[in-house]
Amino acid sequence: MLRTVLLWCLSAAASLGQTLPVTDPAPFVRVRSVSLHGNHRTRDAIILREMSVRAGDTLRRNELQEKLNWDRRRIANTNLFITVDLVTKEVDSLSIDLEVHLKERWYLFAVPTFYLADRNFNEWWYERNRDLRRTIYGIRVRYKNVTGRADRLAATFETGFVNRADLSYALPYVDRNQKTGLGFGFSYLTNKEIAYRSAFDKLLFLKDENLLRERFQTNVVLTRRNQFFAFHQLELRYARMWVADTIARLNPDYLLDARTRQRYLQLGYTYTFDRRDDVAYPLRGHFLTLTANQYGLLPTDDVRLTELLVNYNRYWPLTGKFYLNAMTGAKLSWPDRQPYTLFRGLGYQQNFVRGYDLYVIDGERYFLTKNTLRYQLLNVRKQFKWIPVRQFSTVPLALYLDLFADAGYVHSGMAAQYESRLANTWLFGTGLGLDVVTFYNTVLRFTYAINRQGQTGFFFNYVYDL
């Protein structure tokens, strides 16, 4: 009898266990602690400044992972670490501990430099006959995180096509609240060969045994960061330039009115909103910069010019491994008559329509849109244990196949004088590309493009940040 009762009780308990609903995890979770691991030089405050999740916070459980993902991206975007991993550990059903595991970069580089003096690799390869005399070489020192506060010291000493000496220092935070930063720098440069004007949308160079140009600049920068993604920068710059009489004769507008000397103060303000997942190669988020520059502040300054620039990038993850990037940029400047040294349209740095890599289109105003559909072919992170230095033992590698379509327009009141065929007309370019993203924010770009004029070509560009 007793055995029968026991069996009945066990059966009932089992049946009850099957019908009871499973209790869901608590909808809120408390962050009991945040601990940092691997930041041997970087101060804790610099890392915690980038995090929205803090010890003592109570968060919705279904929002926690997304917040941690953005915190990881913000820490990575300081460019102080090779890898950043955020790990949560359950303490109980209502609380967690958060661990931040970091691998710091190598911060001090004193490396020899050898690079091209031309605007890009393609101009040197196709237009300058791969002339090795058009190279710059020397030594470049980059010391990031000098004091562990994300500060940066940079010095450059180079010769060859250009003789250059640069020194700069920037400290992102000088106040207790980590909102205000300060920086300064100077640069001295001399040339015996310079581009004194453009003709038919190509740069014309003059070479001489004597000095053709001497330039000195110094600046001080004040930065302010009130929010996670918003940055303000105010810069005061003093610039002085001298050119040989030959340059003033060949292009009287080089410094305007056939001058051989130019001095001015420049005041610039830049607002940046940066919510990208990766500053080196973003795939999601958006990036906005608004810049206003006033060249010439004093009555005695040799330049009087106002410049407004806007640049907006939007990045979307699509289905699967597809991504979309749309960029829009524009420049306004006045008066129409400007020194050739500041008369810049498309074709400089990254402001160009792909397919027109070999051209410069000078002008007072421009509009540019670049649109890219990307497919991720590969994205891995390799650990090489045989490399003894931890800062170099982790190597990321990603490959992306690109389909792009660009358009641009440059307005120039000097188009006839500079014999431009591409100013004051719409430019279009399209094609395919392969991007290689790897070590220390290095991006290698291989493209095949065709432009509106039916010209085609293979082009190569690269970006890196030591």
Commentary on this structure:
By secondary structure, this protein is mainly beta. 11% of the residues lie in helices and 53% in strands. It is built from five helices and 22 strands. It has a 16-stranded antiparallel β-sheet with strand order 5-6-7-8-9-12-13-14-15-16-17-18-19-20-21-22. Strands 2-1-4-3 form a four-stranded mixed β-sheet, covered by helices on one side. It is globular. The N and C termini lie far apart (83 Å). The N terminus is likely disordered.
The number of E-state strands comes to 22
Report the total helices. 5
Helix content: 10-25%
Helices and strands, in order, run as: HEHEHEEEHEEEEEEEEHEEEEEEEEE
Distance between the termini: 83 Å
Which whole number gives the mean pLDDT? Answer: 88
Major sheet: arrangement of strands: 5-6-7-8-9-12-13-14-15-16-17-18-19-20-21-22
Shape: globular
Main beta-sheet annotation: 16 strands, antiparallel
Are there runs of 5+ residues with pLDDT below 50, and where?
Answer: 1-23
Radius of gyration: 28 Å
Q: Structural class given helices, strands, pairing?
A: mainly beta
Strand content: over 45%
